[in-house]
Amino acid sequence: MENRPVVFDKPKIELHVHLDGAIRPETILYYGKKRGIQLPADTVEGLLQCVSYEEPLSLTGFLEKFSIYMPAIAGDREAIERIAYEFVESKAKEGVIYVEVRYSPHLLANSEVDPIPWNQERGDLTPDEVVSLVNRGLKAGEKAFNIKARSILCCMRHRPSWSPEVVQLCKKYQNDSVVAIDLAGDESINAETCQGHQTAYEEAVRCGIHRTVHAGEVGPPQVIKEAVNILKAERIGHGYRVFEDEFLYKQLKDNIHFELCPWSSYLTGACKTPFCNHPAVRFRKDRANYSLNTDDPLIFNSTIHTDYKIAWDSMGFTEEEFKRLNINAAKSSFLPEKEKKEILYQLYEAYDMIKSTEF
Hints:
Blueprint: E1 12-18, H1 25-35, H2 44-51, H3 59-63, H4 66-69, H5 77-93, E2 96-103, H6 105-109, H7 127-145, E3 148-156, H8 163-172, E4 178-184, H9 187-190, H10 198-206, E5 210-215, H11 221-229, E6 235-238, H12 246-252, E7 257-260, H13 262-267, H14 279-285, E8 290-292, H15 297-300, H16 304-314, H17 319-331, H18 337-350
Parallel strand pairs: 1-2, 2-3, 3-4, 4-5, 5-6, 6-7, 7-8
Helix pairs in contact: 5-7, 8-10, 17-18
């Protein structure tokens, strides 16, 4: 990589990445064979040709990719613990020192009939067991690879009936790897269903559970407004459409953290402009509170450096901006204050900023 910024090799923070979108293709093939589940290919290269892509699709088209490979993983105890462990290993290799990884316990459990084809049959795991297994994998990965990993449990827009159990699992595991609740799913189809999740989010507020929401990725600014005002979101996943409502943007840019995913936004069709006009450029120029993240690195065939390189090559990012966005990510993380300060100190030390008061 020409003119690679030094900060690329420094410690980084990642706040928006999906566990089921970050599985190693080798692991998918292994469990497909072990469980006798038919996959569209029997080699890594062949599988990647089916699940990964490099030209834009719709958000709905992107989400359909999960149905290709998730039958090999969902509902299997060993597989779920292993993908969590391997995820931590992968992030450590990318120089990430703290990561918050999100997933739907119900979809990984394969425990309810769901409209998505791969989830038609009832699995033998409960969502509670899934959370316990993921926690075990994350903790083993933390110990082996010397990074910190926490999880966020996802409600699904099309399944409000799951949300009460999701918030109960957040409460149960609040001091055991789980740090927040999220609302994910296809905004283009279910943009107006946040009220079906309002009670769960109210319970999260009451119990001190942190909150983030996918909003404004492809849906209108109103979805972001509802996420903040109704669901009391502290962070917004994506949020690119916020610029369609300048008043809303000015209200939020200093108080709400935006979890940006540049490469993802191109491939899902969420942002159709060239990268030089990407919303991340406006966030950078305004010194807003945001981070850069991978979202679904398996499907996008990417690492955190993919997004950093786009920002460096096409968005005018500087070394100092990479430092600033990582510090803001650490400050906006859902860690307890003591652990947050420890992560921040690691960044300040790595960035030679111990004596600096700039941030």
